[in-house]
Amino acid sequence: MNEFFIGIDIQTKRDCCYAISDNNGDLKASGWFGDDHTIFFNLLKELSVNSKLYVGIDAPRMALISPRHWYWVGSKRKWRAKTQKDKGRGRHCEIVVSAHKLANPQWTPLYHEAPNWMLKGFALFEELGTFLPTFEVFPTASYSLLFGVKKVKVHIDFSACLPGPKDMMDAFVASVTVREFIRGEGIEVGNGDGLGSIVLPRPLPKPFLDEVLNWP
Question: CB atoms < 10 A from the CB of 165, how many?
Fold first, then answer.
């Protein structure tokens, strides 16, 4: 059975973009969809009839249910309890990515505090998750882990790049990230708080911070 890997970059000032690539890294399709995503969803459903699809979305899977209670202290390699000065934002998966210096997360807040792009991401995870396996990706972290790695490739075209070239590039790498994870080349981190994990295209860099991988 064929496999396709869908990368989605969430936007609010313009439409969201997507890239679909196959096992060989060849681009099947790319484009944009707005609030009415019927055409895009129909494309995915059509592909899924005879193929296995995996979706990577560049957005938090869900909002915080309550302010987080634990903060990571990198200099001491240990957790500490939240203080009154702390806002309590961020999920375990974001903390792991930040602690390993892969990227600087936009810390996920409570639902009513979330910006529109996160709200759109929450909804898309829920809708797509009803018929396809979905994964949270973090393109900046993927760029960090793939720096210097030449064998991970995707063959692209530029037919849909004009509305937002950087956004489309993130969709390309989101597609690649899911592919590498499904192949067993990457890992997923977080979810100690039950709020979702982030999948990465390669293992965490050394030195591993084992303590941050385990939620208190």
Answer: 12
pTM, two decimal places: 0.96
The tally of domains found in the chain comes to 1
Is 170 inside a domain boundary? Answer: yes
User: Is 193 a domain residue?
Assistant: yes
We report the CATH number of the domain holding residue 111 as 3.30.420
Residue 81 within a domain: no
- The predicted-structure confidence for 158-195, as pLDDT tens digits, reads as follows 999 999 999 999 999 999 999 999 999 999 999 999 99
Domain that holds residue 54: 2-63+107-213
